[in-house]
Fold this sequence. Notes:
Blueprint: H1 2-24, E1 54-61, H2 69-75, E2 93-96, H3 106-114, E3 118-121, H4 131-135, H5 138-155, E4 165-166, H6 175-184, E5 189-190, E6 194-195, E7 212-214, E8 235-240, E9 243-244, E10 246-247, E11 253-254, H7 265-281, E12 288-293, H8 303-315, E13 321-323, H9 326-334
Parallel strand pairs: 1-2, 1-12, 1-13, 2-3, 4-5, 5-8, 6-9
Antiparallel strand pairs: 7-8, 10-11
Helix pairs in contact: 5-6, 7-8
The site of zinc ion (ZN) has 6 residues, from loops.
GO biological process, one term: carbohydrate metabolic process
Signal peptide: 1-23
Keywords: Signal
Amino acid sequence: MNKFFNALLLLITLAEYAQRSEAAVCDRITCRLPRCHCPTSRPPAGFRPKDTPQMVLVTFDDSVNFNNIRYYEELFPKNNPLRNPNNCTIGGTFYTSNIGVGNTVYHHIRKLWDEGHEIASHSISHRSPPSWWDQATYNDYVEEIVGEKDMISNQARLPPEEIRGMRTPFLQIGGDSQFKMLYDNNFTYDSSMLTGKYSAEQIHNTPPIWPYTLDTPPENYLCDITPGNCPRRPYPGLWEIPLNRMYGVDGKACGMADSCRTTTEEDTFNYLLLNFLNDYYNNRRAPYGVYVHATWFNRKNRFTLGGLKKFMRYINRMPDVYMVTSYQVIQWMRQPTRLADIKNFQPWKSRRQQC
Ligand SMILES: [Zn+2]
């Protein structure tokens, strides 16, 4: 009897396990572009890395105000000499919160938009403690994220449908409350989930992950700072642009580029370049993200700003590197285009980018 009971228990456990692992595995046969894409470290559409453009995302979080706009103007000057190889100006993405290190001044947002950058939502209040965002309800997320989208659209006079993405404050994702809010309100993507090993020695086995859709709820390693808060339900066609961890000179991981410590301009440049080259030469071409806050530039001698500028100038000389916005990455994912044809890829030649 006991044996029978044990065997039954084992069967039930196996069945449960099968069910759970079934839920966690993205089906590569049915999940096809342009609507669906499984998490992977390989380029889409079977492209070889050498045929794949290397996309670089430069993004800035929090409010855009009288204090920090000068940094942005310095990074992206009028008549910017930094142009992508298709001869259009480079673009960044601003995850904007209304409050958070000063209030956002929306005419600066309008100006950034007019110059070809993308604006996304990073909440109205950016409130503390960070754990508030873990526990926030669906209605809290609507109020904060859709609310900020409305504010951007009304006050900077942007077409509301052009605000397509979000990032959670402190990267504290809010499970199904957050992702259902995005899905119900026709957002295109989230970019809040951190992934990657915690130390540089381990990274050879875990190359960076390409953007993917949430048709299948992500496995815990894809949202590992608060795995309990990974979305558990599917959101077909909603994209995730993951934040692949970076590594400081001490080998320790940091979530966003500005949380690894650097001490000089040269040091900052080397750190950004080494992380970039590490991804570039691992030969997978996943988009490389430099995710920072303007507060990073408030250092003595502003050496971090100098380091970032130098890095952007350096990679701008590479014929296969494109500094594009978050939504432009999604546009490419939906319609993968080889390096040989990329100069004619229309979504990367918006009128605002003065091609
Ligand atoms: Zn923030």
